[in-house]
Amino acid sequence: MRISFLFLILTFSLPTFAQEYTPIPARQVQVVDTFYNVHIIEDNYRWLEKTESSETSEWISKQNDLSQDWLRKAERRSNSFNEIDKNKHIRYNFPKKEGKYFFSFAYTDTRVGSSLLINTSRNKKTREILIDPYNDISRKDKINISDYQVSKNAELLVYQYIRNGSDWQEIGVVQLPSGKQLKDHLKGIKFSNPAWLDDGFFYSIIDQEGKFGQTSGQKVYYHKIGNTQEMDELVFERPERPWVQLEFMTTSDERFFILTEKDERNGKLSVFYKDYYSHQPFLRPLITNFDRGLKVIDNRGGKLIGLTADNAGSSRVVQIDPENSLQWKEIVPPFSDGVLLDVMPYEDRLVLTLQSNNHPVLLVMGYDGKVLHKARFPFISAIHGLEGEPEEDMVRFILTSWTVPPVVYEFNIQSFEKEVIERTEVPFDFEQFEYTELEYKSEQGVKVPLVLVHKKGVEKNGDNPLLLTAYGGFGSVSTPSYRSEIIHFVEHGGIFAFANIRGGGDKGAKWAKAGKGKFKQNSFDDFIAAAEYLVDQKYTNPKKLAITGGSNGGLVVAAAATQRPDLFKAVVPVVAPTDMIRFEKFTVGHWHIDEYGTVADSTSFCRLKNYSPYHNITDEVNYPSMLVVTSENDDRVPPFHSYKFVAKLQNRKEQTNPILLKVQEDAGHYGGLTYSSRTQNGADVYSFIMHELGME
Questions:
Q1: Spatial separation of the C-alpha atoms in residues 484 and 404, rounded to whole Å
Q2: Residue 254, Cβ neighbours under 10 Å: how many?
Q3: Among residues 347, 342, 346, 320, which one has the least CA distance to residue 331?
Q4: If you count Cβ atoms within 10 Å of the first and of the last residue's Cβ in the chain, which end, N or C, has fewer?
Q5: What is the structure's pLDDT at 391?
């Protein structure tokens, strides 16, 4: 089967909206927990944690009926689906080279997950479908191919896929280039990527009790092609410490197997390696009980190239001789003018990307630390998809921004010449938009970067509809990427604003640490300060201000809404953790106690209680209109966080502004898996926001 056109796969998990409002009642069952003999915590909607019960299912069904009715009315007014779909349907394909083949994803049917395609040439217009989720895996479930790896001889491809949005994964293997499915089929995989070695690959499984029980007991296995999963070799486990996280890789030449063990409870990291060129390969420690991160990138001449941090937390590139692992050679020192995002080792040089105040920087450096080339892109944007072969001289990457569709560059690391090899055609004039870079003061006078996206000539009249968002967690660097939803919002006169709040990694490790753990409230303070600044500077007013965020960003907006409900008109938390007292009890929550804290410590418990959105809802407040979005199979942040949050908000006499709940079916932490479901979710979210802000 061949296809001659591709649709760009954009992963957006965005929120919803409303009109005449009658809340759905939820019964209260008194549940009281007492902490440290002092703190009494009520949790009268805990019964909603039983997601499979008929009572919970009936309540969810009624909530979805209510929200869908409101959203349909709102969408007809704003025509959101059609306009978002129009700008999303961009003909763009960025094939990635693996071995001697080129691979890419495309939606061959908007109602199912994306297919994996194969080609022998980057420029060939027709591509063969290698794996079709609908025909090759399941016609019953929604399937998403989450990862793939090509064997060193390019004869086989191992791929991972998820069903209906869950984090649980399965593995299959196909021959190249025919796509013939082999009998190899592995299950029970979570937070694991395959790593080839000879005629097999490494993977890991994990234990979990029930759909949303705690994950634990991760084990790494080696699977030889042709064997059943029961025959696989156990490589590593920590039965005495089942809470640790394991990551692994093989270097590009398959000389080294690298295993990383992270213990969240003591904040320590250990790295082990096996050298298959040695006379008797066995797993040996490279470094143990390290108090900073270390990510091995690849091997060059028997020396490991790694990314780590200095004592201040700034990223640097090092070279490590496994035979003398305590003597590290610094290749690239920490940068003072940007945050290091990506490193690609080539034979005689390194290619690096930085993000500097929302501007990407491309660097070529020698292994002696000398800068050979530096290119800083002048407009607010980001480099995505950096890829290339270690033995070649070419690097390919995508340059994009919120309103700038992807542009594909090819860059020669020897001549330093770059060439645009593909542009994305879109049905709008992206030059009508402009970006404004600002900086505002938060608590203790901290200066926080803020970017606005708007039409040219916008007036500071205090009455512009404005959508503010942020992430601010896990040291993640938030870089702009093309979103047709933002095009729709700005074309209708809105201003889109992104705040690089503390907790994120946008200004380095110290910035991330300042919004983590015991400093988490700083993230919320920064976000609230951004809203206050935008109002003070006459960009908008509280009746025209909406906020949204996903995952940790969803926590940020939910906390901001419960702490300062007077500031916002509309709030859209997406897959947000809102019950921070019980967060660590489910799925991977216990892996994130370094980010949020733990109830096992009395001081940490008090901080969690003080900002947990669910626990800070008061009876006397009419909170802003909300569309709370979650997914029924989200086993990263279980959906009952949203259920309980909505139930408590709705069941109060003072709440007259609408509180809506949208539960996405056959979806997980990143939303729906099909093109149609993702487009519809974006349309719902922006329809809700635009309706609440009075936009036509």
A1: 10
A2: 16
A3: 320
A4: C
A5: 80
How far is residue 418's CA from residue 373's CA, in Å, rounded to a whole number?
12
Reference 162, options 673, 674, 680; nearest CA is 673
Work out the end-to-end distance of the chain between its first and last CA atoms, rounded to an integer number of angstroms: 44
User: Which regions of the chain are under pLDDT 70?
Assistant: 1-19, 89-93, 123-126
Q: How many domains does the chain have?
A: 2
Length of the chain: 696
DSSP 136: I
Please list the helix, strand and coil fractions of the chain in percent, rounded to the nearest 5, in that order. Answer: 25, 35, 40
Q: Write down the pLDDT at residue 15.
A: 40
C-alpha angle 526-452-435 in degrees, rounded to nearest 5: 140
Q: What is the pLDDT of residue 11?
A: 36
Asked if 221 and 204 touch (Cβ cutoff 8 Å), the reply is: yes
| Measured CA distances, 226 to 95, 155, 175, 181, 211 (Å) | 29, 14, 12, 12, 30
- Please report whether residue 221 resides in a domain: yes
80 and 103, same domain (yes or no): no
DSSP state of 265: T
What is the structure's pLDDT at 120? Answer: 87
Q: Is residue 360 part of a domain?
A: no
Categorise residue 216: left if φ over 0, alpha if ψ from -120 to 50, beta otherwise: beta
CATH assignment of the domain containing 251: 2.130.10.120
Q: Are residues 51 and 124 in the same domain?
A: no
| Three-state DSSP state, 535 | helix
Q: What is the pTM of this model?
A: 0.94
What torsion do the CA atoms of 185, 187, 192, 194 make, to the nearest 10 degrees?
-10
Q: Domain residues for 627?
A: 2-86+428-692
Residue pair 540/460 in contact by the 8 Å Cβ criterion: no
72 & 202 share domain? no
Write phi, then psi, for 107 (nearest 5 degrees).
-85, 105
**Whole-number pLDDT of residue 131:** 96
Tell how strand 200-208 and strand 195-197 pair up.
antiparallel
Same domain, 162 and 298: yes
Please tell me the predicted confidence (pLDDT) of residue 13.
Answer: 37
CB-CB contact of 615 with 46 (8 Å): no
CA distances in angstroms from 243 to 8, 216, 588, listed in the order given: 38, 5, 10
pLDDT in tens, 398-457: 999 999 988 989 999 999 999 998 888 788 888 899 999 999 999 989 999 999 999 999
On whether both 47 and 145 belong to a single domain, the answer is no
- Whether residue 75 is found in the same domain as residue 169: no
| Cβ proximity of 252 and 305 under 8 Å | no
Contact assessment for residue 255 and residue 230, using Cβ atoms and an 8 Å cutoff: no
Do residues 522 and 569 both lie within one domain? yes
